[in-house]
Design brief:
About 5% of the residues lie in helices and about 40% in strands. The chain has helices spanning about 1-10, 115-125, and strands at about 25, 30-35, 40-45, 50-60, 65-70, 75, 80-85, 90-95, 100-105, 110-115, 130, 140, 150-155, 165-170, 180-185, 185-195, 205-209. The strands form four sheets. Strands 1-7-8-9-10 form a five-stranded antiparallel β-sheet, with no helix packed on it. It has a five-stranded antiparallel β-sheet with strand order 3-2-4-5-6, with no helix packed on it. The protein has a four-stranded mixed β-sheet with strand order 12-17-16-14, with no helix packed on it. Strand 2 and strand 3 (about 40-45) form a beta hairpin. It is elongated, with a radius of gyration of 18 Å. Mean pLDDT is about 90; it is low at about 1-20.
Length: about 210
């Protein structure tokens, strides 16, 4: 029994404190995640007999990507730098693309598959998911119910890349999921590459009424 406990102790849970956003376990550098081929499920703990224990390592430098190891061998390299477990799924967040990928397992190998707009809406049922293509000339208007916060997620359905993009004010961003923000007040929110507004790095503005 003691040997089994040693496997569970390294697992660290990162619970989102946001009531409107579903619960998820964030996987950070040095964390572990377990996959059960029989149950076809990822988990941040558990004693499944056929478990595969994956240890995460984030590459050094800016724009670092995630790599997962099993028994000291690299078994999965992702285009993301943040992943989370929700339900039975391991979701990879491609921050520079504002896209989501679901990690799967087939014939002894792990892979990632891009999630559709519908997939992401189902993943975050309490969140307003906005396609980037809906911004007209860089503008999009939202209506917020008085006295209530509004959770919004930007979803990229274009060829645009959003490397090093950030929100102004920065306080609206309070999770590791790129594009996911909590709006508390009316006004304007900018999403830009260091404030740039060029053809290569256009600025996007959310107007909240």
């Amino acid at each position: 029994m003691k040997k089994l406990m040693l496997l569970v102790l390294p697992f660290v849970f990162a619970l989102t404190a946001r009531a409107e956003v579903p619960y998820f376990d964030g996987i950070y550098d040095g964390y572990q995640v377990v996959y059960s081929p029989t149950a076809k499920a990822f988990m941040t703990g558990g004693m499944a007999e056929d478990r595969i224990v994956l240890s995460k390592k984030t590459s050094s430098g800016t724009g670092g990507y995630s790599e997962y190891f099993a028994h000291g061998k690299s078994v999965l390299t992702l285009g993301s730098n943040f992943e989370f477990v929700m339900g039975k799924d391991l979701i990879a967040v491609h921050s520079a693309d504002l896209k989501f990928y679901k990690v799967g397992y087939k014939k002894g190998a792990f892979f990632e598959k891009k999630m559709s707009y519908g997939d992401v809406k189902n993943l975050f049922p309490g969140v307003t998911v906005i396609k980037m293509s809906k911004f007209k000339k860089g503008e999009y208007t939202l209506t917020k119910e008085a006295g209530k916060d509004l959770d919004v997620l930007l979803f990229n359905d274009t060829k645009q890349n959003f490397y090093k993009y950030s929100f102004t004010p920065a306080t609206v961003k309070n999770t590791d999921i790129a594009g996911l923000i909590k709006i508390k007040n009316t006004g304007k929110i900018e999403f830009a590459h260091y404030g740039d507004n060029t053809a290569a790095s256009p600025k996007y503005t959310l107007t909240v009424n």
